[in-house]
Input
Amino acid sequence: MTATGTPLLEIRGVSKLFGSVIALQDITTSVGAAAVTCVLGDNGAGKSTLIKIFAGVHRHDAGEFLLQGEPVSFASPREALDAGIATVYQDLAVVKLMPVWRNFFLGSELRRGRGPLARLDTDAMRKIAKAELLAMGIDLRDIDQPIGTLSGGERQCVAIARAVYFGAKVLILDEPTAALGVKQAGVVLKYVIQARERGLGVVFITHNPHHAYPVGDRFMLLKRGRSLGDFAKGEITRDELTAMMAGGAELEALSHELEAGGGAAAAAAQELEAEVHELGIPAAAPAGDGAAAGGRHAVGPRGGSSAGDGRP
Output
């Protein structure tokens, strides 16, 4: 929240259609200053479409998109960036053979001199890049080394530091830990916390509740373009979050397939059923039940409401 209690970024009942395909329907969540909102969901849940609405790639077709309480609708990513919304995509948009400092200023290079005599201010860019990375706790041996020589986690952190330096108020991270090992994922999560401590609102897109829960302040779950719920951290546990993402019907079907295989597959099915029971994941609801019917609402963790996963 800002000093007045207004979220930095908020969406209310946002929907997006591509022809007859409903990519998002009636999505509501908010991002406060110095807070992390985690958007979770499997492939095809609608996370990428939501990112592109935030980033100005797509315009929403229904609902409200508010930035610091004011309605907005961006016509381009540049408009979103100028408004203080920076997006760090999975591919990072870096040039691997260029030095770290060149990538830090890529597209926004500092120059000195005027007209035809203007040239890159390489000394200033090196110093600023080094200082900003240090401020985020990233101490590189050589700011001139190609960014491709850094680990995946370090490259993510350079992208985060760049967004902070160029004045981002809201930082959107698209699956920053998806292709990383345990140690490197931990490094990225540390810098997510640092961005929050510097007052940014962070939207952390992920499919991994074990990465989201330690750093998140709010959690919104997507499934097939619909919201399964929007919860503050005090309203949901990590196990409940995992259970909602896993889905009882899908795991039940997988368990039956494994059992039919017999032998080691049947043993694996028993282990899966035990884990499902331990997490408290409900089995598939009978046909017509509120949890299974499209557009109906079920009660989420600790009394929160969540939408069904059916498509209209």
User: Anything to note?
Assistant: The chain has one domain: 9-246+282-307. Residues 9-246+282-307 form a domain with the Rossmann fold fold (CATH 3.40.50.300).
